[in-house]
Amino acid sequence: MEIALYRKYRPRSFEDVLGQEQVSGVLSEAVKLGNLFHAYLFSGARGTGKTSVARILAGEIGTTKNDLHEIDAASNRGIDDIRELRQAVLSLPYESKYKVYIIDEAHMLTKEAFNALLKTLEEPPSHVIFILATTELHKLPETIISRCETYDFKKAGREILKELVLRVSKEEGFKIDNAGAELLSVLGDGSFRDTLGVLQKIISGSKDKKISLPEIEKITGAPPRDVINTVLEALADGRSEEALRFIGNTAEKNTDMKIFIKLILSKLRLALLNRYAKDMRKDILRELGAEDYEFIKRLSEKPKVNSKTLQRLLKAYIETPDAYISQLPLELAVIDIAEEEKEKEN
């Protein structure tokens, strides 16, 4: 069985960490200066590198595998588990200066477990360092947060994910075009792990070493670029009936409507940036490639492409996961835009 790409390309040093300079840079310098804290708290969305950085930090301070302990709080969440942990931390490291305990999904601990852990965090043995990782910081008690040095992990930007896809594809012996890499960066939704997971799915289903945009769209179920562009052009030209027809056709194919709206939002955003942030045009061109940029440029020149349109569609994106009819929020957004245009004309 092949190693999962996200494991194979997991960063091994602070220099390898992508998109988290605000974390890796500070921790790297702290290690060099010997300014270590007894408890760290890493928070951020899934797949942003929290566990990887925790392992790197442990390695940088010289903690070996025998003295590194990873605990999944989702399955070890009770007070008895924490009591066992409190006893375990009292023993000295086998071969390192520090024993490091990484507690993943820390927000899953019970109230009683948190209370038990708090006592250890208040007066930890000098040879122990805790690293708590969570995707839901708001679920942690303030008493726990206040006793940790906290670091926020950002979602990876699309450009970073796109470069990652291009690099990993090349190292795996595959060729992928810019448009395909761009789509994968959107589907990854800011997560390194999810992006590489989708890429692995594409690679596994590829018949040759060349990965095309249509191939990615077919395997992932993402709507074709032409459909996205047609809906956008229809909205930009005030052809709401045509936009609604394409939305209906797309929904009938069981397309994930959240992904559909996300791709529409992505292009609308770039169109507005191209209009109002002229200094960003070169970056947009580099990100999209010449063909897609020409479409974005034409779109940016349409008066009906404006911030209100983007806001309506953003609202539809937020409402889609809970919608009884998946395409309804998007349909309502298109209708609202059309009605607003009619009112202006009258």
Topology at a glance:
Blueprint: H1 5-8, H2 21-33, E1 39-44, H3 50-60, E2 68-72, H4 79-88, E3 99-104, H5 111-122, E4 128-134, H6 142-145, E5 149-153, H7 158-171, E6 175-176, H8 178-187, H9 192-205, E7 210-211, H10 213-220, H11 225-236, H12 240-252, H13 257-276, H14 281-288, H15 290-300, H16 307-319, H17 328-345
Helix pairs in contact: 4-5, 7-8, 7-9, 9-10, 11-12, 11-13, 12-17, 13-15, 13-16, 14-15, 16-17
Main beta sheet: strand number and arrangement? 5 strands, parallel
Which band does the percent of strand residues land in?
Answer: 5-15%
The string of secondary-structure elements, in order, is HHEHEHEHEHEHEHHEHHHHHHHH
CATH topology descriptor of the largest domain: Rossmann fold
Give the termini separation. 65 Å
Number of helices: 17
Low-confidence stretches: none
Number of strands: 7
Query: Which strand order do you get reading across the main beta sheet?
Result: 2-3-4-1-5
The percent range for helix content is: 55-70%
Overall spatial form: elongated
Rounded to the nearest angstrom, the radius of gyration is 24 Å
Q: What is the CATH architecture term of the largest domain? A: 3-Layer(aba) Sandwich
Class of the largest domain, according to the CATH hierarchy? Alpha Beta
Mean pLDDT: 91
CATH superfamily of the largest domain: P-loop containing nucleotide triphosphate hydrolases
Structural class: alpha/beta
Summed up, the domain count is: 3
InterPro entries: AAA+_ATPase, DNA_pol_III_sug/sutau_N, DNA_Rep/Repair_Clamp_Loader, P-loop_NTPase
Domain AAA+ ATPase: 36-157
GO molecular function, one term: DNA-directed DNA polymerase activity
Function: DNA polymerase III is a complex, multichain enzyme responsible for most of the replicative synthesis in bacteria. This DNA polymerase also exhibits 3' to 5' exonuclease activity.
